[in-house]
Amino acid sequence: MPCTISPLEIKRVKGLGFLNNKGTDLFNARIITVNGKITAEQTAVIAEAAKKFGNGEVEFTTRLTVEVRGVHFDNIPAFQEFIAQAGLITGGTGSLVRPVVSCKGTTCQYGLYDTFALSEEIHKRFYLGYHSVKLPHKFKIACGGCPNNCVKPTLNDLGIIGQMVPQFDEDSCNGCKKCQIVNICPMKACKVEDGMLNIDPEVCNNCGRCVGHCPFDAIEEGKPGFKIYIGGRWGKKIAHGQPLSKIFTSEEEVLNVVEKAILFFREQGKTGERFADTIARLGFDYVEKELLSDDILARKDAILAAELHLTGGATC
């Protein structure tokens, strides 16, 4: 049967997380997860909802949300009520902060911080907490546990990458001809010159793989931190995010930068442009200066109260 739902109603329910199956009265119901994690109980409820209201199939999005396909327009309220019994909600569309994605850095052998914990806090503060805040376009955040970039933080509007900055003790270095650090460095950032290990800071990505591998304890410790990239984007027009010049040393610092970036985008972004375009228009140096200062936080209430971007640029 051809679609009988008006364009206005299709747009309305899209804002609730229901995307029209083109040409029909059926919709994909997008269920929000917290960085891709759901419980066994929630999994069972989603499966039952797919059978009860959809076509029995479950799909997964690139933002780690879950979609049930084939939900009839008339069943949308009942679907939402059914999944709510497991604490699940629909959403993840519009010119808003989108669901945060996270790698498995909490449990991965290469993870340099608790990615689940940080992404859950971002979800709480900025996906849920800022859910009514209209932005020029969608705003995507990704938490990567290490420089392996499995969830592509550098292709998100804001990406966080775990760091372990090697603390090199020159006095302990013996300038070994077969240096264990040189052998283990995946970036080839290290070499022995004039009897001393040299680490090229332009090549080293602070993956931490070298820490603890020198038999003479020249790199016994690493300093944990976070690198933040801004202005990434994938799609028809790809933009690689640029790193802020500072290595952040606490999660609270990171959370403050996330908030400042969202506020900055709302205040100075033009309706319809992505954060990458805002940065290109205003200049990276200017944007970085704003994000590294606290001036924008003093304007927070005014920025949130302003009637901006009532019709944003996101179409999906």
List the helices and strands and how they pair.
Layout: H1 7-14, E1 18-20, E2 26-31, H2 40-53, E3 58-60, E4 66-72, H3 76-84, E5 101-102, H4 115-128, E6 141-144, E7 158-167, H5 180-184, E8 190-193, E9 196-199, E10 221-230, E11 242-243, H6 251-268, H7 275-282, H8 284-292, H9 295-298, H10 300-305
Polypeptide structure, described:
- The model has no long low-confidence stretch (mean pLDDT 96).
- Helix content is 30%, strand content 17%.
- Helix 4 runs parallel beside helix 6 (251-268).
- The chain is of the alpha+beta class and 316 residues long.
- Strands 5-6-7-10-11 form a 5-stranded mixed sheet. It has a 4-stranded antiparallel sheet with strand order 1-2-4-3.
- It is built from 10 helices and 11 strands.
- A hairpin with a 5-residue loop joins strand 3 and strand 4 (66-72).
